[in-house]
């Protein structure tokens, strides 16, 4: 009976701590992803396309951005996730604290040219740029 009481009182604390750790890991990883995307944009002058979220862990193309079409728009992706490999991140960094991959979608088409070459070229905004 005493052991049951101890378990009953400590279990909610353990579950709460686990949930807090998962939320913290998710927030930390989201910040790393945000920084990696900003670095990718600064180097490539465009947003990366999403990766195919249906590819299982261990698949060679898991975490790699989907190809762009002839006008440099991302292929349609209803299961898009953060392209962690393309961003230079580990598989773990592409998942939240519950080990689900982060969803990532990009609007494409003529009105959304952010994945096209030069679509996010901000160098003219740089005061150090000639």
Outline the structure in words:
There is one protein chain. The protein has 130 residues and is mainly alpha-helical. It has one domain (2-121). Helix content is 33%, strand content 3%. Strands 1-2 form a two-stranded antiparallel sheet. The longest helix is centred in the first third of the chain and has 43 residues, at 2-44. The chain is elongated. It starts with a helix and ends in a 49-residue tail after the last strand. The model has no long low-confidence stretch (mean pLDDT 86).
What descriptors fit this protein?
33% helix; elongated; 1 helix; 130 residues; 2 strands; two-stranded antiparallel ribbon; mainly alpha; single chain
Topology readout:
Blueprint: H1 2-44, E1 51-52, E2 80-81
Antiparallel strand pairs: 1-2
In short:
The protein has 130 residues and is mostly helical.
Radius of gyration over alpha carbons? 20 Å
Uncertain regions spanning at least 5 consecutive residues: none
Q: Write down the domain tally.
A: 1
Task: Assign the structural class, choosing from mainly alpha, mainly beta, alpha/beta, alpha+beta, or little secondary structure.
Answer: mainly alpha
Number of strands: 2
Distance between termini? 77 Å
State the helix count: 1
The fraction of residues in strands falls at under 5%
Shape: elongated
Order of helices and strands: HEE
Question: Whole-number average pLDDT?
Answer: 86
Amount of helix = 25-40%
Largest sheet: number of strands, sense, barrel closure: 2 strands, antiparallel
Q: Looking across the biggest beta sheet, what order are the strands in?
A: 1-2
